[in-house]
Automatic annotation (TrEMBL):
Protein name: Uncharacterized protein LOC107793478
Top-level lineage group: Eukaryota
InterPro entries in the cross-refs: RNase_H-like, RNase_H-like_dom_plant, RNaseH-like_sf, RNaseH_domain, RNaseH_sf
Residues annotated as domain RNase H type-1: 2-108
A GO molecular-function descriptor: nucleic acid binding
Organism: Nicotiana tabacum
Amino acid sequence: MAAGLGGIFRNSNGDWIVGFHKSFHATSAIQAELMALQEGLKIARDMNFVDMKIETDSTEIIKLLYEDNQYLSNTIIEYRLLMHRLKLPTLKYNFREGNEVAHLLAKEVVKDFSPIKYFYYARPPLFVELELIRNKHGICNSTKYLPTTVCNSIATLGNNNVLKDYALSMESYV
């Protein structure tokens, strides 16, 4: 299947450092997510980024990297090695809405699909600027209501905001 991947590096203020997107053929959504992570890790290595926090909206990727699993074992070992070279960046879960800029980058590259498209952006392209600003200021496009068990599961994958938001929503019922 034709697929696109996208990623963004930001500083601690949420400002754009570099972004990228690439088109390729993928056999599954997991493969596409793994390819996006791999590209991001390689860019981080090449640009000497350390002390990073990586966010993904794929719980499967986090589980594959942190749990012993024979599925895609050689690939997973390669990613773990890259992460080790980058001084073990934090990998945590974020909702898709929190990664919307990366999704816009991925969607854009599959328009007029060609398996050799690969772009780096030193500045945000126009088609992501509005979402980048919204993201930086914590503006969300939607609200989700999740069971407590799901919130706890997401928290174990590194997103502790979900517990804070859950506690705030519970206070509003009191």
